[in-house]
Design brief:
This protein is an alpha+beta fold. It has 16 helices and nine strands.
């Protein structure tokens, strides 16, 4: 091609087809001087792949207008997200579909065929500017909202090797998979509000605060887990394009420690998934993907076929152990319920963390061995604080039902901790006294044989008659689905060991008023 020659679009296609001229030689900055997307660097070396995944659709029907062909070739950026019909040259119109974004308000894609030549029909005149087709030389050319629903990280925004970077995908070409995914803004990891630790007025309360300050999860710990989550989500979306990966559990609910594992929930759809069949199959594919593609930084991925099956693995970069489940959606909801409780009152987090450390030291905090899991322990502390003569916590689900509804869309649940005001309790008990009261309540006051712990109702309820509650030694109600979170305690020996530890620790702490008498310094300072 002669320098400075600018052929019309039809001639350009004729040359490409006749001489099989590579796209990188035909399209350059001199031909499209107003295109801001040309001249970007190629793929970063670690993402380079053989350049065979994108070829110009040279088999387009000759009856198509040259404007159709140009739009088809260059109206894309992320080739992986192109509809197969476009890559095959079949440019049939895409029916109108509603696309939700941002705050959930929908936009409507055009009902007219995508390609109409150069002149738009009259019924397109009222289409908003950001939805209309933008030409390369238009000063208003920018990505539409539809393009922003699935943003790419900076390190993934490269062009194909040896070719030009192509303009952003227009709203016409949003794949059906993207349209069906509810938009999700990542949960902010900032604290819902500035919270000042309580002032310790006695030695025992100061010891409780010391344990909390030594053992609480740091911001850098959370960022490591979030980085791993975001990278794994990109990888898993190669298998399940509609999926989303959530960080859940103690890492995000405000009660995490420096040694807390990471819990991940893979949501492939918002409907329930059969955990015995579907979930195990999905996790088997994820495990295989980890073994084949991510062995460089994912260590020992293992499928555990439990009641809620998980894939356990270790991230070599952050050295964090992770458990990944499928569609355990209640875990997402209770993560943000607990996060709200954690920041509702300044004494909640220190007390919960010390109780977790105490239970772990006395070996009654391991569901795999028939004792209490951490979630049940947190609910037990919250329940105690709700049932004091002068409560320190309310029932959030009763006071703010709209913020903690089981029907709330998942991409909105993270907003709850930021919408609930702090709770002002008249109870000014010190942390040391609250720890003593917690041990005494479950050692001498709570009726294990006939009562159920309910944070949802903020009181002890009579045990239900259902099968799940029958012959269970400890009953702790899950706030959203009403199941028993303490069902792992199914042996009387383990139950007696738990009760005995509450009683012994209460007597010892009451007489000595020294936290080291029930939680030695060396048992937690190693963190």
């Amino acid at each position: 091609m002669l320098p400075g020659l600018r052929p019309n679009c039809f001639e350009l296609l004729v040359w490409i087809k006749r001489y099989q001229i590579p796209c990188s030689l035909i399209v350059n900055k001199s031909m499209f001087p107003n295109s801001s997307n040309l001249g970007r660097p190629p793929f970063h070396p670690k993402y380079q792949q053989p350049n065979n995944f994108f070829k110009l659709p040279l088999n387009l029907s000759p009856t198509l207008s040259h404007q159709q062909i140009i739009d088809a070739q260059f109206s894309c950026q992320n080739v992986d997200s192109l509809p197969r019909t476009l890559l095959s040259g079949n440019l049939s119109p895409i029916p109108a579909q509603s696309l939700s974004y941002g705050n959930g308000s929908p936009i409507q894609t055009s009902t007219s065929p995508v390609f109409r030549g150069r002149k738009r029909l009259s019924n397109e005149q009222n289409v908003p500017l950001d939805i209309k087709r933008q030409r390369f030389h238009s000063p208003h050319h920018e990505s539409t909202v539809a393009n922003q629903t699935v943003p790419l990280s900076d390190e993934r925004r490269y062009s194909a090797p040896g070719s030009v970077t192509l303009p952003l995908l227009h709203s016409y070409y949003v794949p059906d998979l993207v349209r069906s995914v509810p938009p999700f803004r990542e949960a902010p990891f900032s604290e819902p509000r500035e919270i000042t630790l309580p002032v310790a007025k006695d030695e025992l309360s100061q010891q409780v605060l010391n344990v909390f300050q030594v053992c609480q999860q740091r911001t850098c710990d959370l960022k490591k887990k979030e980085l791993c989550r975001s990278q794994l989500q990109r990888e898993i979306q190669l298998i399940f394009p509609q999926s989303r990966l959530f960080l859940v559990g103690s890492s995000l609910n405000g009660f995490g420690t420096r040694s807390s594992d990471g819990d991940l929930c893979l949501v492939v759809k918002e409907e329930p998934v059969n955990q015995k069949t579907e979930a195990r199959y999905i996790l088997s594919l994820v495990q295989k993907h980890f073994c084949t593609r991510l062995s460089g930084y994912i260590e020992r991925p293992q499928l555990i076929p439990a009641k809620v099956p998980i894939v356990k693995f270790r991230d070599k970069v952050s050295c964090v152990e992770f458990d990944l489940n499928v569609n355990n959606i209640v875990g997402i909801r209770n993560t943000f319920l607990l996060r709200t409780y954690a920041y509702l009152e300044s004494r909640v987090r220190p007390l919960v963390l010390v109780v977790k450390k105490w239970a772990s030291h006395h070996e009654i905090n391991d569901a795999s061995r028939g004792t209490l899991n951490s979630y049940s322990l947190v609910l037990m502390v919250l329940h105690y604080l709700q049932t004091l003569p002068e409560p320190i916590l309310p029932s959030l689900q009763k006071n703010y039902p709209e913020s903690f509804s089981s029907s709330m869309q998942l991409h909105l649940v993270h907003q709850a901790p930021f919408t609930i005001p702090p709770y002002l309790s008249k109870n000014r008990s010190a942390l040391g006294d609250l720890l003593l009261g917690f041990l005494k309540y479950y050692a001498t006051e709570f009726d294990w044989s006939s009562q159920m712990i309910s944070v949802r109702e903020a009181k002890a309820l009579p045990r239900p008659d259902g099968v799940e509650w029958r012959n269970k030694f400890i009953c702790v109600e899950e706030p959203f689905d009403g199941t028993n979170t303490a069902r792992a305690v199914h042996e009387k020996q383990k139950f007696d060991m738990i009760k005995d530890e509450f009683l012994k620790s209460w007597h010892r702490l009451k007489s000595k008023r020294d936290l080291n008498s029930i939680l030695p310094f060396k048992s937690y300072y190693a963190e």
